[in-house]
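ok trying again, last paste got cut off:
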Amino acid sequence: MDDRDIPFAEPDGPYASPPAVFEDRREEWRVGPVPPAFTSMRHWQAYRFAFSSPNWLSNLLMGGLCQFIPVVGPIVWLGYTYEVIVALHQRPQEPYPDFDFGEFSRYLVRGIWPFLAQLIVGFVLAPVILFFMYGPLVIALIATGGGKGAEEVVLIALGGGWLFGIALSFLFAALISTPIQLRAGMTEDLGQALSWSFIRDFAGRVGRESVVAMVFLTVSAVCVMLGGYLLCLVGALPAMALVMLASQHLEYQLLHLYIHRGGAPLPVKVSRGYGH
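nice, full thing came through this time. structure:
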């Protein structure tokens, strides 16, 4: 499915839902849109919802355990968090699914797509960020030629470059990385995830909220991780799992806010029988 199959126009009616389109070839199907569960951002809900399950402690401990498994473990947990988004997206009034080791391979398949999408985005954007971080330093060194007062100019250029680079990183993460990772996790399709039409449309409708959500997640993650470390390091890995779960819930809120503002609902890939 390419971009031409997914129009970026508002469907008939405010929350019209076309019939589901079934594809039996890979024991999976794509489901139609649902009415938005969020029409405004509720940042702290991204953390509170994690404790709404009776098995929240077990889920977070499993997430912490995944962090022990090199490379594959974090991808598995990432896949699980997107399975949670898919479940909430279809049934927002029901509890989110618990982590199940029997679905390990399913989580891995779901998680590999946003992981690869982020690698591609990082590979493309990292040189741009580094250029703006260190470019002023190089210019300052050339301009001063190591003469009198060069140290002050160099320090100002280095500090300014780093501040600008960090700000640019936040903007790229919120406006480019977030929609790419969200779409990759929902559709399991890199071609759709890297759609410039969707990225532009997403940023135009919920760009400001994406930036605020990114700042909130960064600040709150520091507090959560610090709390985990204070628990004699025992809670550090579950705290990391909680932050990842909160990150994906913020993306889930942004998705529904995007739909509420006229964005085209995303096709969602769901395993046959999972949660149904």
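cool. The chain has a mean pLDDT of 81. The first strand starts at residue 21 and ends at 23.
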